[in-house]
Amino acid sequence: MNRLGDLISYQKSPKSPSSPANNYENEKNRKYDRQLRIWGDTGQYLIEGSSVCLINANATGTEILKNLVLAGIGSFTIIDGSKVSTEDDNNFFCDPSTSLGKSRASVSSQMLLELNPDVSGDYIEESVETLLESNPSLFKNFTTVIAANVHNEKTLIKLSEITWEYNIPLILAYSIGFVGLIRIQVREHPVIEAHPDNTLEDLRLDRPFKELKEYLESFKDFETYSRSEVAQIPFVVIIYKFLKEWQKAGGKSPNCIPTTFKEKEEIRKLIRECMAKIRNNVRKKIEADTTEIVIEGEIELDNFEEAIRSVNTVLLPSNKIPSDTLYLLNDISVEKVMEGMVENSNFWLLVRALKLFLNEKSDGCLPVRGSLPDMTADTTNYVKLQQIYQTKAKEDAETLYSCLTSVCSSLGKSMDTISEEQVKTFCRNTHFLKIIRTSPIWSEYGSNQDDKISIKTATKLRELVNCADFDGDESDDLIFYLMFRSISRFFTLYNRYPGYCDDLVESDISTLKSCFKDIINDLGCANLSKDDFIHEMSRYGGAELHSISAFISGCAAQEAVKFITKQFVPLNSILIYNSMSSRTSTYQW
Amino acid sequence: MPLDVCNRWTHLRKILGRNGPFCQSDYEAGSEALKFVLEECKILIVGCGGLGCELLKDLALMGFMNISIIDMDTIDLSNLNRQFLFREKDIGCSKSETAAKVINERIPGVKVKPYFCKIQDLDTDFYRNFHVIVLGLDSIVARRWINGMVCSLLNYDDGILDQSSIIPLVDGGSEGFKGNARVIIPGMTACIECTLDLFPPQINYPLCTIANTPRLPEHCIEYVRVLLWNREKPFGDVAIDGDDASHIQWIYEKSAERASQFNINGVTYRLTQGVVKRIIPAVASTNAIIAAVCSTEVFKITTSCCTAMNNYMVFNDVDSIYTYTYEAERNPNCLACSRVPQELNLSLESQLQEIIDLLVNDEKYAMKSPGLTTMINGKNRTLYMQSVASIEEKTRVNLKKSLRELNLSSGQEIIVADVTRPNTSIFVLKPPSASNDPQSVSASSSSSS
């Protein structure tokens, strides 16, 4: 039940420079080196402990598993009741020329296992329909469930209900003709380590803590430094100095920062003026000095240039909490965690502790992240500054840990499951916390029922469809969602793809057209007629083009990795790949 | 059990054999396109790493029976997390030969021909053979070289491009959870050289930082790699081998030592190896995604069933899944694909070194170690050449000489060779006073061709 209870679950001890490299240089580390550089030892540990379920070992399915087996998942289970047929000639892990008529689950699991001796694999030679009837609780054993080209609506609803109940991520992957689709379902998936691409630094120049303030103010008037010294002053010191001057000149409060372009320009102007003065002084000194060997050229002030460039990105209100983090702090689970009734309880305990930290232990700022970007500076100044931030980050993490202790003790809960290392990781990432909660897949099928979730899903979906522009060159690819739904309806009724047989393409087009109409009706959308798309989907006849499957499989495997490692932010919740126009679109409802 | 050919390729038959409303307007559904793919179409894959293995599998399963693949590398343990055609027993073997063997055995009818060599070892006649060339490389220089090759194959008749001389390039790249894929129709759409600025800038730490004011663990590692290695020669007079654990171990220990002197944290064995070998993080799934996009484009180009991508896609799935496809623009003065003669607007008083600096530092050219020759009085004369030590020694003296001293005058043609291209490029010396537009470094209004 508590799948994500143990959020960061395991941290190998960090390696100090003195530790023997042999520990690192073992075979497993070398094999996985290129990916360990992405998700680290903790991510790899979780991958190695995962068990993945694949429904249908078709080209899309086996390619997904291939990507995961290479990454070193603990185990996989293939569910597939079909036999290898000539149509499997688009499937690398199933060779019809040698295995025609054999169990596809067995043949493909064997071939997949050859990829990586670290992985164990299993298969069930039964259809998912049968298993959902006979052994539905089987599905709760998996870290992630992946279904490749499963179209039967009843199966989809049942599968979605079971995985929803156990909060196990479900990934549906489809590839037909030139189009692919991925649908993700997860009730709740918190992300601590999102690894965002472009982040703003957390330097606290508007609200410097005591040690930082002392350091920043320990600098004298810049013009009194020697030529070599002045060029090594870290840019944060320069910005801070002129922020203070700007505040003083404008009669502003000590926490005030420039917000408009004009105000920022005022600070940049102060910095430029100072640069000019320093340059001038150097020039004068050179002119006056006739005895010493003159150092040629103008003084380089890269640090001042860095300061000018950084005014925009560094002078930010430190007490502004990012909206995603704020959303979490106000989430109902923060209260409910005290009743012991929530999923991901360790995560919510941390968020609750963070709330306590913000209310009682800080001036409204999140814990200091402790990172410092590289900048022009001499070693001593840079290292000193870095230590100041790191020490404060460590203190904040300790404070948060004590907040967590008091949260836990008021709850009568032990602290055993959350380590200090996990708290540190959490503190480094409080600016980037995310929670993914998708709508359940079954709710897309239940617009006639009157449960709240289905009504909400249907409303959102209807709105999206009604507002989309389905005409012209820039036609909204949301149409393909409706097409896949229509194909599923067709498949549910006739147990085959529209256009599967050459001589039935024409008649299938009109049948698919009526399926499309039904779907539009079910969703309560305005009338829509898209004959060209229906024709296109019918002509595919369910054909799986290997490269389209491989694209969808790569994406689906990546999403599985995100769920398993609890790092990076998963898709919420639909991806459509239109390879005719070489583009993807994502939707959420 | 032998497989009846008639039962094969059912998926492809549907896609290529039936007309659809979104087919390219001149596409005629039928068996011709499939026949071309299966029997005639010749594809070259350059690189047999993470992307190359995927490309080979994708294309072979899509009916391309005639594939050649080049790679000069052998298999390493660290390849196995993504290069799925290789096993532990294959470590040390040729990548292209191993991959070809696996595919040839696994997929009936396919003929993969491996080339275990450098791209430079094969000539124009070899490259001319293919209908499409797909690149799965991590090296920018190799991409530029192949790009230069296909551009040099273009034929112009009275200034009109002969369409039959075009060999489309499909290029993919990946790093971590990010990647890109592009289609290049040489002479018609932006080529690699047109868009050099799309490559991420190389990280180079200034020497003075490394030597005097290190701040990051990387600075300490670079100090050992760049300065200490040659000074202390721990393993005699040998270059650093990133695959030799004892070399990395030595660099790691010395870097850790230096870091502790400066109170810098964070030197680890993994980081040391990453910096020394310039390791790019990689996972199976990103490679699969990028190779799949490239393979789809190869399929579209060779069958004409759909319009090819126009022309550049970026991919990133760090946060959700994101792609962006746009039209990268041609550079009208591109050195590789424009046919516009390149001008050097330097005064005759400039030193030869300044030409070298321009060719290396100007991001339009971004050459590595250009060699310059010219014709004076009908005789070939080497002005400067770095690649051959004895010639370098002889011509080094020229670097400090002015162009005038070297008897070069306005209109003189200087022939430039560089590792970034297979052929030489001709630059015309145009001192600012003689140029129409003294502001520009390269001409845009020249009428000669």
TrEMBL record, chain A:
GO terms for biological process: protein neddylation. Pathway: Protein modification; protein neddylation. Pfam families: ThiF. InterPro entries: APP-BP1 (IPR030667), ThiF/MoeB/HesA (IPR045886), ThiF_NAD_FAD-bd (IPR000594), Ubiquitin-activating_enz (IPR035985). Residues 1-27 are annotated as: Disordered. One of its GO terms (cellular component) is cytoplasm. Keywords: Ubl conjugation pathway. It comes from the Eukaryota. Residues 32-584 form the THIF-type NAD/FAD binding fold domain. GO terms for molecular function: NEDD8 activating enzyme activity. Belongs to the ubiquitin-activating E1 family. ULA1 subfamily. This is NEDD8-activating enzyme E1 regulatory subunit.
Automatic annotation (TrEMBL), chain B:
Keywords: ATP-binding, Ligase, Nucleotide-binding, Ubl conjugation pathway. InterPro entries: E2-binding, ThiF/MoeB/HesA, ThiF_NAD_FAD-bd, Ub_act_enz_dom_a_sf, Uba3_N, Ubiquitin-activating_enz, UBQ-activ_enz_E1_Cys_AS. It catalyses: ATP + [NEDD8 protein] + [E1 NEDD8-activating enzyme]-L-cysteine = AMP + diphosphate + [E1 NEDD8-activating enzyme]-S-[NEDD8 protein]-yl-L-cysteine. It comes from the Eukaryota. Residues 344-432 form the E2 binding domain. One of its GO terms (molecular function) is NEDD8 activating enzyme activity. Gene3D superfamilies: NAD(P)-binding Rossmann-like Domain, Ubiquitin activating enzymes (Uba3). Chain: B, domain 2, Ubiquitin-like 2 activating enzyme e1b. Chain: B, domain 3. Residues 433-449 have a biased composition (Low complexity). SUPFAM superfamilies: Activating enzymes of the ubiquitin-like proteins. GO terms for cellular component: cytoplasm; nucleus; protein-containing complex. Coiled coil: none annotated. Pathway: Protein modification; protein neddylation. One of its GO terms (biological process) is protein neddylation. The active site is at 208 (glycyl thioester intermediate). Residues 430-449 are annotated as: Disordered. It is an enzyme of class 6 (ligase). Its EC number is 6.2.1.64. Belongs to the ubiquitin-activating E1 family. UBA3 subfamily. Catalytic subunit of the dimeric E1 enzyme, which activates NEDD8. This is NEDD8-activating enzyme E1 catalytic subunit.
